[in-house]
């Protein structure tokens, strides 16, 4: 089959990790008889440098002309918060998510078989296994609310960020979570701050209504601060964790470290229509950019999610995951996951080894 993929390489390590993911796509194409054709789409700090704004006109249309989007990462100190909003990479990232209607961000955090030793938790905790799916609401909440900045008479500058959620927004992400739980271990943990926030009280009431529609799925409410603690104490208790935008952003970075490294965790952002967008959960890692040090596995596993969720190619998705697990089982490690005494390999070698496994 033929598939068109938009590539948003982005900034920092983005182009490096996307480069390795493209090699993997080509290897999958060879092995399974598919043709992937690529359209480069400029977005982020690199777009600001090239055309003066981080989200050039026509970006969403270019993506919509493709079957799926692969994104590396955007951002960096060069395009910091002193820049006007239209020049900041993060503005573009939020805009593309909004314009493609990508309200559901699936962030699986699993302790891969060969990575048990990389789990920083107690041995007994790691032995219980970690395999959770964070379902993060992606186009609402505080990241999309009105921003205010004004001078007060007696307290200096004051800023406000509005957090709003509608029943519709909560219901559609909640439904996704329950449907996904039915395909897994049939448990949903809904994370909120209903003891304080009005948005969370609405969130909780909608989730309770949905829980009645899915009696076969176990349901619990978890306050976000407790969830942060439970992720370190006993992450094996979680199956599907559904939460709002900012809580999911923060908790998924935390979950990544529990399973080894942020360099390992992929994500899929999907809406009600194509294309889906696939990206690692990490950012542009300016501290290691351009040094062949970035772990490309998060982006490569995002390609596996693309196969599964956008193209319904389960064998191809599983083959990528098996190749990653095979390379890790052989003991190869990039710097972020190398234990003391292990010589790390670079971004490109990790990509090459995964392609070799795929072709074997
Ligand atoms: N989706 C996106 O494009 C995202 C963009 N960002 C942006 O990225 C920039 C940097 O943000 P940070 O807070 O530093 O977060 P970050 O995720 O880029 O980096 C945090 C730490 O993790 C390490 N790291 C990240 N990815 C790695 C990989 N693949 N392999 C090995 N180590 C890795 C970095 O070296 C750094 O020490 C900011 O401008 C931020 O806004 C942040 C998160 C997501
Ligand atoms: C601009 C931020 C919301 C990006 C981020 O940290 C993420 O999506 O994980
Ligand atoms: Mg984040």
From TrEMBL:
EC top class, as a word: oxidoreductase
Site keyed Important for catalysis: positions? 143, 193
Catalytically driven reaction(s): (2R,3S)-3-isopropylmalate + NAD(+) = 4-methyl-2-oxopentanoate + CO2 + NADH
Pfam families, A to Z? Iso_dh
Read off the InterPro entries from this record. IsoCit/isopropylmalate_DH_CS, IsoPropMal-DH-like_dom, Isopropylmalate_DH
Q: For substrate, which residues are the binding ones? A: 97, 107, 136, 225
- Names of required cofactors: Mg(2+); Mn(2+)
The cofactor remark states: Binds 1 Mg(2+) or Mn(2+) ion per subunit.
Q: List residues binding NAD(+).
A: 283-295
NCBIfam families listed in its UniProt record: leuB
In the record, the note on similarity to other proteins reads: Belongs to the isocitrate and isopropylmalate dehydrogenases family. LeuB type 1 subfamily.
Biological role stated in the UniProt entry: Catalyzes the oxidation of 3-carboxy-2-hydroxy-4-methylpentanoate (3-isopropylmalate) to 3-carboxy-4-methyl-2-oxopentanoate. The product decarboxylates to 4-methyl-2 oxopentanoate.
Q: What is this protein called?
A: 3-isopropylmalate dehydrogenase
Record the organism: Pseudoflavonifractor hominis
User: Which gene is this protein's source?
Assistant: leuB
């Amino acid at each position: 089959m033929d598939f068109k993929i938009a590539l948003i390489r982005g900034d920092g390590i983005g182009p490096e990790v996307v480069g390795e993911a493209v090699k993997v796509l080509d290897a999958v194409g060879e092995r399974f008889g598919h043709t992937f054709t690529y359209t480069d789409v400029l977005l982020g700090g690199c777009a600001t440098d090239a055309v003066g704004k981080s989200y050039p006109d026509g970006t969403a249309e270019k993506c919509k002309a493709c079957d799926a989007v692969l994104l590396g990462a955007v951002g960096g100190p060069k395009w910091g918060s002193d820049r006007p909003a239209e020049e900041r990479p993060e503005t573009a990232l939020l805009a593309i998510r909004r314009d493609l209607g990508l309200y559901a961000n699936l962030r699986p955090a699993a302790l891969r078989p060969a990575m048990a030793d990389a789990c920083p938790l107690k041995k007994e905790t790691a032995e219980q296994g970690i395999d959770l799916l964070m379902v993060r609401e992606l186009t609402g909440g505080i990241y999309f609310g009105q921003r205010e900045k004004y001078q007060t008479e007696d307290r200096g500058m004051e800023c406000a960020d509005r957090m709003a959620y509608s029943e519709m927004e909560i219901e559609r992400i909640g439904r996704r979570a329950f449907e996904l739980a039915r395909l897994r271990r049939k448990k949903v943990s809904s994370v909120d701050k209903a003891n304080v926030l009005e948005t969370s009280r609405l969130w909780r009431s909608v989730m309770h209504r949905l829980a009645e529609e899915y009696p076969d799925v176990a349901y619990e409410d978890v306050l976000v601060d407790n969830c942060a603690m439970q992720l370190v104490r006993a992450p094996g208790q979680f199956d599907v964790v559904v939460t709002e935008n900012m809580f999911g952003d923060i908790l998924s970075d935390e979950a990544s470290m529990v399973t080894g490294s942020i360099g390992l965790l992929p994500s899929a952002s999907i809406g009600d229509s194509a294309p889906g967008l696939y990206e690692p959960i990490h950012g542009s890692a300016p501290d290691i950019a351009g040094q062949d040090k970035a772990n490309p596995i998060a982006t490569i596993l995002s390609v596996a999610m693309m196969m599964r969720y956008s193209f319904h190619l389960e064998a191809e998705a599983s083959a990528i995951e098996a190749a990653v697990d095979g390379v890790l089982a052989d003991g190869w490690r990039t710097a972020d996951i190398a234990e003391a005494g292990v010589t790390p390999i670079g971004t490109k070698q990790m990509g090459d080894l995964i392609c070799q496994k795929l072709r074997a």
